[in-house]
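Section 4.2 – Deliverable D4.2 (structural model, holo form)

The reporting period included a commitment to supply a predicted holo structure for the target in complex with EPU. Inputs used:
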Amino acid sequence: MQNAECRSRVNQGGGRRAEGGGQPGAENGGQRPENGAADFRPPGCGLRPPAWAHLADELADRLSRESVIRRNEPLAKHTTLRVGGPAEVYVEPAGEGDLALVLRFCRQHELPLLVIGRGSNLLVKDGGFPGVVICLAQPQFTRIEIAGQRLHCGAGARLKQVAVEARRHGLAGLEFLEGIPGSVGGALRMNAGAMGGATFDVVESVRLMDYSGAVRECKVGELAVEYRSCPMLKTHIALSAVWVGWADLPEGIGQRMNQFSRKRWNSQPAAPSAGCIFKNPLSIPAGRLIDELGLKGTRVGGAMVSAEHGNFIVTDPAASARDVLGLIDLVRGRVRAERGIELETEVEIVGQ
Ligand code: EPU
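Output (structure tokens):
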């Protein structure tokens, strides 16, 4: 049985904080790809129609008061594409203890689980996510601490902030993060990259939690790393990472960041998007391919292939996830038919 106080801790419909304190919900400020979305469903679990309100109350009862928990949280506001339905339950754990507790709770009740970062590489379907969505947006997970040439960054820290802190402390090598609108956790999961740099080029170690709540530290050499992927982070959640830079003058670092920023603004759209929607095939960059096929400006409902960069789909306020998915299918179909190339989405598609 839930008592009234416990019930009152879970907000309905999103937008407000759960009673108990903490930081505002994850913001995404019109940004793009990160995102480390880890979508986990324990093997063999058949999803029973769960009594979500009851489950949310029960979970709220177990979490510390600093954690945030909401029901029916619109995920469109947690993604940079700005489309998609709600999460049954949305949680911002206050720290590692509460995160482990949420993971064990989901396992115990066989609930689908999705970990999101800044939602910049995430497409949530219009029916929303029928489970628990975790966002590491609370201060325990967003810290950036500098020690010599190392930056210790929580998984929820913004990449832009990491780049700015590195510049402020005269640490070079992380300039490319400036334009990636994701979080540290998302960048790790995606091995995000830009301007010739990639996350795992400059990460030394990662702190991880498995879905039973056990924590371990991994040196980068222990992790398999691929183009836009770190497979270990499909079965583990990144908690933090140590990045290493090298000493340089902040002015020089700032100049390189400005140069990257100008290049990005000149070649990529400012409208809401999830960054590059497809991975680059080995033979040709997806953007050039889509451009060559004359698909820029192609529209499905409120979603359009960007006129600035062929590998971006931009959305207007009326867009739905269905529009974006329809446009992805259309582009993939044309590329398959005309060039025999199978485009693979870089953006993670979740929900129902
Ligand atoms: N190109 C065209 N037409 C277009 C777009 C691109 O001809 O509409 C050409 C460009 O002129 C260039 C080539 O295609 O010769 C590659 O384009 P670009 O330099 O923009 O790089 P990209 O491979 O399309 C990658 C990353 C971006 C990152 C940029 C800049 C991938 C899938 N994308 O894009 O990352 O910002 O490099 O470094 O690896 C993301 O991953 O979401 C993302 C935005």
